[in-house]
Fold this protein.
Amino acid sequence: LNYLEATIPKVSVVILTLNEEDNLPECLESLNGLDCEVLVLDSGSTDRTREIAMTAGATVFEHPFEQYAAQRNWAQRNLPLTSHWVLHLDADERLTPELVTEINCVLRQPPPDVHGFLFRNRTIFMGRWIRHGGHYPSYHLRLFLKDRGSCEDRLYDQHFVVSGNVKGLEHDYIDVLTSNLSVWSTRHVRWAELEAQEILNRSEGKVRVRAELLGDPIQRRRWLREGLYLRCPLFTRCFLYWFYRYFIRLGFLDRKEGLIFHFLQGLWFRFLVDAKVVELRNRHLQSRV
């Protein structure tokens, strides 16, 4: 029995992919030294993504993509996860060596009262680490007991939710945002539509992160968004948010890359979400005429 337990990987890593031949090699390389198995869930790549994954020793599965929450939860329910612990990554994310060491150490003898672990996110945009503007550290729940967690039912900005206690780890994982601004903008136009739908169609009873001012960092951030930001007037709120990020939280210290990032992500994208809210409301009113 002890021998069998010793051969079971400490964690099952699930990576979602679609045409990620540029990003996937570094993501997989960052797992070196982690006591894990790697399962890649692809949604129809036409490039070398699947070949790269299999060459690196990952097991590749395929499932049509609907939206992120559905894909992540399908992976939870259907992939043959060997370990009790699961770690979710995207192909443009990497673990730091320090985080790999920390995960190995923690999972060697997991705390009995902890069911999930928060990672600190380090955003890289146009080659620069975005340290300011309230953007670092941000926290994401990525490692948890597989029978305790699931992805919340949201169209955009989904987080994992764990039934039980969570604890923060000390080291970072890296989120490498695309340096191609055309790709970045196209993605955010699509996400603005989803976010606007989410704002207008929020419903109770779904799996959700609880919005709590005194909760963990994710719950606190959700409270600030739903309890404060969304209560401000349309269009005014995005300018206030950008001013807060860029000047009050010192986003200007991220230099020219920070100027681009905080303006596009903190103002342009948020303005577009509000514009989409207006568009969807008008469309709904016209359909009733």
